[in-house]
Specification:
Blueprint (H helix, E strand, L loop, with lengths): L1 H10 L5 H21 L6 H18 L4 H12 L1 H18 L9 E9 L4 E7 L9 E6 L7 E4 L2 E2 L12 E3 L11 E3 L8 E9 L2 E12 L5 E4 L7 E9 L4 E6 L11 E7 L6 E8 L5 E8 L3 E9 L4 E9 L3 E2 L5 H17 L2
Parallel strand pairs: 1-9
Antiparallel strand pairs: 1-2, 1-18, 2-7, 3-4, 3-8, 4-5, 6-7, 8-9, 10-11, 11-14, 12-15, 13-14, 15-16, 16-17
């Protein structure tokens, strides 16, 4: 990158399309780094290279010599205003397609993985029927190498990190309709973290982050405990992690505290990570509905039971917490974000 920048400083972009073309190729690499890491955290020369190269392309597109224009503007307006003008030129280039590229909308869905089971990291993008031109890259913050890559219509594992070897796959038949979701086999506790879904198509490029939590959660089952000396209910859930809280509730005695008439235990499972949850509620009454609620930072599960003289009715449900779609990022928003971040990058120097 330093060599490309030095070429700019020494030549100040001679008024030939070839010179600007060579610098623009280097700037495309800079663009990828700026998009991933943010303009505010980028080195000054990277920001300047990105800015100058696109402005040079714009000036050539309008048949204006870069050197003469640069000297005139610097003499007339000063360096600070040049920076503002260059930033404005970037907005024009990105917003109106002078460079022939634009951002595409990428959406992710924050979710949780159940340890030992398969999980899905959800990601969608603007569909593109040109399958061979679609590139999907999944990256994990703090991990060298890729989580997964799909390009040329097939998976490419050449740069995949070894911790994900043999555990990832995209839904290849759904890529052309905009599905870049990643299937992660045998979810591990260490899979938790921040992931980036990066997309490049013939229409443009874009990315979105995803927070992936890992743990263990399961639906509880409630049964009448006939072994107890009094009428009691037994609530069991086979796998939870981190250790959850357990609470009982009653439809008739709403708001009552059942902690003194219940006993909860946690039994570590054979893999020494997840635990079995067992809670017993004593002194229950007939014709009443009781609920056993289990909750940790990842999920909340509820088991309901109603015991009458003639039958036992059960119901259970599981809800993942803090899950939902990320905010879609439009091209207009990205242009504004780029300008604000670039201004911050330059002002902090």
């Amino acid at each position: 990158m330093d060599g490309s920048y030095n070429m700019w400083v020494s030549g100040v972009c001679e008024p030939s399309a070839a010179e600007c073309g060579r610098a623009h190729i280097a700037a495309q690499a800079a663009e990828g780094e700026l998009l991933r890491n943010g303009f505010a955290d980028a080195p000054f020369d990277l920001c300047l290279l990105f800015c100058l190269s696109y402005c040079c392309q714009a000036l050539h597109a309008m048949n204006l010599p870069f050197r003469a224009t640069f000297k005139f503007v610097s003499h007339k307006f000063g360096v600070i205003n040049i920076i503002i003008i260059l930033a404005g030129a970037i907005a024009l280039i990105i917003g109106f397609g002078i460079s022939g590229k634009h951002f595409i909308t990428v959406r992710t869905f924050t979710s949780a993985g159940n340890i030992g089971e398969d999980g899905i990291l959800s990601c969608t993008f603007e569909p593109d029927i040109k399958l061979n031109g679609i590139v999907i890259q999944w990256l994990k913050e703090g991990t060298m190498g890729l989580v997964h890559e799909f390009k040329g219509g097939k998976d490419d594992f050449s740069q995949q990190h070894e911790m994900f070897r043999g555990r990832t796959a995209v839904f290849a038949d759904q890529v052309v309709v905009g599905n870049a979701s990643l299937r992660l086999k045998n979810v591990q506790l260490t899979d938790a973290g921040t992931y980036t879904c990066y997309i490049r198509t013939s229409k443009g490029k874009g990315n979105a982050n995803l927070e992936y939590k890992t743990g263990a959660f399961s639906v509880p089952e409630i049964n009448v405990d006939y072994n107890a000396s009094s009428e009691s209910l037994r609530c069991e859930a086979p796998r939870w992690f981190p250790q959850p809280t357990v609470a009982w509730a009653s439809q008739i005695d709403q708001g009552a505290n059942f902690s003194e008439v219940s006993n909860t235990s946690f039994e570590l499972n054979s893999e020494n990570v997840t635990m079995k949850v067992v809670s017993v509620l004593y002194n229950v009454t007939i014709n009443n509905t009781y609920s056993c609620m289990i909750e940790n930072s990842i999920a909340k599960a509820t088991g309901d039971i109603k015991v009458t003289d003639s039958e036992v009715k059960r119901r259970s449900q599981l809800q993942l917490l803090n899950s939902g779609p990320s905010l879609p990022v439009s091209s207009v928003f990205l242009v504004i974000w780029a300008l604000l971040s670039l201004s911050t990058c330059l002002m902090l120097r």
